[in-house]
Amino acid sequence: xxxxxxxxxxxxxxxxxxxxxxGFRAIVFRDGDETFIQSRDLRxxxxxxxxxxxxxxADLPERCVLDGEIVIPGxxxxxxxxxxLRIHPAASRVAMLAAATPASFVAWDLLALGDEDLxxxxxxxxxxxxxxxxxxxxxxxxxxxxxxDRDVALDWFDRFEGAGLDGVVAKRLDAPYQPGKRAMVKVKxxxxxxxxxxxxxxxxxxxxxxxxxxxxxxxxxxxxLQHVGITASFTMxxxxxxxxxxxxxxxxxxxxxxxxxxxxxxxxxxxxxxxxQRRPGVTSRWNRDRDLSWEPLxxxxxxxxxxxHLQGRxxxxxxxxxxxxxxxxxxxxRFDQLEEVPAFELARxxxx
Length: 352
What we know:
Blueprint (H helix, E strand, L loop, with lengths): L1 E4 L9 E6 L3 E8 L2 E6 L12 H8 L3 E9 L1 E2 L2 E2 L1 H7 L4 H10 L3 E10 L2 E2 L5 H11 L7 E3 L6 H10 L7 E6 L9 E7 L2 E12 L8 E9 L5 E7 L4 H15 L44 E13 L2 E2 L2 E2 L4 E5 L21 H5 L2
């Protein structure tokens, strides 16, 4: 079951509210000594999180199916970068990371228990059954908090962001579980930032004629331009117009460009440390065949983008392009413009 985006937390009777976790969505199956973890797009996740299987066998009902999220708690909240590092081809690397930064599973729905298929049961009943089934679980298995009080959900929306949570999800208490449908409502944090436009990627359907995405940068405390994400929210007509609009900035762009050494494809699998340096052109962990090559632009343009969540020093998701900012200098696009959210003790949410 999926969620549709809303600008406000819905009110009135008949809603169940939960924190929106920022991790890997996962369906967990247990049948006796066998467990299986599956991603939303049907990929098996067990090999990337081997530390979860013993805990799932120890704490879950003997036969059940749960919907939830795999997360990695860090010293400053949820650590999505640590999750990304798990998607690695080497089992030895995954085992080392599992020991260093163990993952947790946060359950929020019960889809089956024993021989009983609960997907047609109303959300309110499924929540009660879930609470009973997971009454005695211990870390790293958790039951997500839930409330029927909108004021509590509004408080969560503000406070839990400091723990790395992504917003609030609202579900109708009388609704069944609806696979593949956007039957939930999600409300995510939204902010704006002025960013340097330092490069672009061609659109897959029109290399040379359509712009796919713009590469964004912000200057850190030391004056280094860091790659923080992309913006790609353009119509096909706008993508075509951007080719001519950005053409002057492509001239002599590579010389002296702060990311010149990274232009073209690059591979992040060779890192031996905790995380590769964030840079454009790094091979996708999810799709190794995806072309992430890019072309530099002279660092002269600034745009304003809307974003929902900052993960470390990059935008967690693609941003939304709002407008060009000819009144802003690239040098003024720094991390210190972003709002600092006080850290919140994640252990209080996970009840550990």
